[in-house]
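tool_call predict_complex ligand=ribulose-5-phosphate
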Amino acid sequence: MDAKEIAGRRAAAEAQPGMLLGLGTGSTVHWTLQALGERAARGERVRGVPTSLDTERKARQLGIEILRLDEVVALDLAIDGADEIDARFRMIKGGGGALLREKVVASLARRVVIVVGANKVVERLGTTFALPIEVVPFALAPVARRLALLGCDPKLRLGKDGLEYRTDNGNAILDCAFAHGIADPERLERDIDAIPGVVESGLFLGLAHARVVGHDDGRCEVVEQA
Ligand code: 5RP
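tool_result ok
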């Protein structure tokens, strides 16, 4: 088992029978879905709100029941990955383009558990990963100019086909590299949110309750937010 599988499977154990789940997106949560799917195959009712069309498709194939947000008021537990996570459980997410739905789902969950390989744990956000920002296509040029004034280098994300990437919500993504990382994530989040045309940023602050970190040597650490 590699670090992602160790973390993803361990986090699935947090899901108690009957819980309403938030189902994250990405290659680490892939293993959470597999573990939940194995439980569904043994007859357990497993259900949750997916954070992307990709997760919805995978979950359906695994026998996990799909819920819509108009069918639930709150979720018991959301399990999701991250692109970077720091000691205060602040995160950069959106490498897979699902940041908007991931943030909505996390905001509705009583408990949010983040699954990562050890390489995602950083001292300062933005040092290993560009910050994804979901933007209304109409406003791409002015938003990119305003973002650059915040000290980053915004690059338009392209899809595998070389065309402009589109999220599940029909928006574009600007991947914003900060040469020296992000000194003040809370202030940056406020500044980004104030730009008209920004739909959501990949800064996830104050949302995670626990972090499950897998290591390639087989170890797995579960740390609760202090
Ligand atoms: C998708 C995300 C993912 O959670 C993040 O990119 C981590 O993915 P992976 O587990 O594949 O490294 O934010 O929008």
